[in-house]
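Reopening: Aminotransferase still failing for me.
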Amino acid sequence: MGLFRKDLNNQVFKIEVSDIRQFDDEVSQIPGMIKLTMGEPDFNTPDHIKKAAIEAINENYSHYMGMAGDIELRTAASEFFNEKYGVSYDAQSEILVTVGATEAIATALQTIFNPGDAVLVPTPLYPGYMPLITLNRIKPIYIDTRDNNFRLTPDMIKQAIADNPDETIKGIILINPSNPTGISWTEDEIIAITDEIRTQKLWAISDEIYSELTYGHDHISIAKYIRDQTVLINGLSKSHAMTGWRIGFLLAPKSMTDELKKVHQYLVTSATSVSQRAGIAALRDGKDDGRIMNVEYKKRRDFVMTEMKKMHFEMAEPSGAFYIFAKIPEGYNQDAMAFCKDLAFNHKLALIPGTAFGESGKGYIRLSYAASMENLVTGMERLNDYMTENK
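Support: Ran it again with your exact input. Result attached.
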């Protein structure tokens, strides 16, 4: 029997596999391709973490963990976030271990919003959010930050709410540091933004997965200033090069965590036991693993920015994460997808079209410098060849 549309949740037909994944899959088939596409550290997981996982296997950590996560891992997380960012969460009642930050996002959205509620969405935005917003029948209210060099302001929040008086706006999505722009807010900016969120009585869904990857300054958590209205998302994928281990965290006040736990349980039961034991080693014995990677990322960022500016790309200087979000120079194809496909198929360099991050990404491309310097050097040579040939 064939599949009939009426048999499925109609929201499923409104979403697609992300443009990032589709584009990456397409260009990966081209021999000799240099891919600066994916948001994944090119470093391997540190050996001390792998050793902890091997020990966990040998010690038979192969059974269900508590649905909130290994209490030793939650304790390590509580200590880590307190020491690093000055935010205090009780390990027993205010922290959940999730299957990566992605599950944390899904759990937060399903817990906070009713179908028909609205959420403020500053753009450009990591595309993992929008399909989950669609599936949960939440209405996105976009805040285009292009005209302010991708920096959100309290006035933007206030204006978006004023422009939608009939909507039940319950929250705002914040990614700091940002994917795709690499923007990281200053403390003054965070204080101003959180003051407005407090005034508007919104939940801040604060995705801080890149918190250990900042340049020239320490990360400041939004929860430091608006803890009682924040659902904080973090994890080990970027900070400890553990993307495949799938360990994330949800941190929130106890009353919210009690509700988040219900949704989390029915989505995944619990995170993988062996990965959780590895996570303890990451947070306790590898507190500064991310900072070691930072040194290399900064060298790569500076090199790529210098080369792209020579080619007349404009960009906001990334102060966090490992992305450059650059405006395609005038005189070239402003259709970002067409630009990236032409570059990939004719010069074997893959970048992500800005439209993967929403309408405000039109005319932009995203480059990940979480790649070897060798590949970045060759990539910039190929990009320069392309730009020269297509003047």
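The CA atoms of residues 120 and 172 lie 4 Å apart. If you still see a failure, please send the error message rather than a screenshot.
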